Amino acid sequence: MFKKLFITSLFCLLLVPSFGNAQIKMFKEPPFEFYKVSKGDSFWFIAQRYGLDYRRLMELNPTVEPRNMHVGEVIRLKPSASSPSSFEEQVVQLVNSERAKQGLRPLTHRADLKNVAHKKAQDMINSNYFSHTSPNYGSPFQMLKTFGISYRTAGENIAKGQTTPQQVMNSWMNSSGHRANILKADYDSIGVGFYHGAWVQMFIGN
């Protein structure tokens, strides 16, 4: 039991801005590339705040539903910003970079494992929870078995609120339990999921 709790140790870093009664600061242009959606945000408001054309902002974020923006969702403010659709692969690259520093073999980003991690990230947003235990899929171990993935050892890292792959990796690497998962020699495969600000890493070893 202790081992499972350690493997699926919980980490949450929420970066929700709080303006209180203070006037919201406006910018002539975005000081950064990504923005995390807060309650009540719209493309029009975000565009006004950062001196952008809201139609251009929508073009930069074609997968974001304007009438159903999720709190914590990451949107691009500049064309130079990488698409969130590439975040999952970037996290894998960062994981393997950290493992290489320790002389560990790289992890394979398996499509079936990635699918499960992405479904877990979606589930956390759609069912409004932040936990290793899903009300719909159960524990990460149960979820892997439900989707037909066998393993000898397995683990999961989750996070919510970070806006870039590097930011979420920094958070995980600064947490002993999550760092242990990333650098565990027994793992050979990984699946990464990202959905509306929720991040999931699933690891297995066979």
Please, could you describe this protein's structure?
36% of the residues lie in helices and 15% in strands. It has eight helices and six strands, in the order αβααβαβααβααββ. The strands form two sheets. The protein has a four-stranded mixed beta sheet with strand order 3-5-6-4. Strands 1-2 form a two-stranded antiparallel sheet. α2 (43-49) crosses α3.
Which short descriptors sum up this protein?
206 residues; alpha+beta; four-stranded mixed sheet; 15% strand; globular; disordered N terminus
Q: Can you lay out the helices and strands and say which pair or pack?
A:
Layout (H helix, E strand, L loop, with lengths): L1 H6 L26 E3 L6 H7 L4 H7 L13 E3 L10 H15 L6 E2 L1 H16 L13 H7 L6 E8 L4 H9 L2 H7 L6 E7 L2 E8 L1
Parallel strand pairs: 3-5
Antiparallel strand pairs: 1-2, 4-6, 5-6
Helix pairs in contact: 2-3, 4-7
Helix-strand makeup class: alpha+beta
Strand content: 15-25%
- Spatial sequence of strands, sheet with the most strands: 3-5-6-4
Question: What's the end-to-end separation, in Å?
Answer: 21 Å
Radius of gyration: 18 Å
What does the main sheet amount to? 4 strands, mixed
Helix content: 25-40%
Task: Outline the low-pLDDT stretches.
Answer: 1-22
Describe the global form.
Answer: globular
Mean pLDDT: 88
How many DSSP-defined strands?
Answer: 6
The number of helical elements comes to 8
H/E series = HEHHEHEHHEHHEE
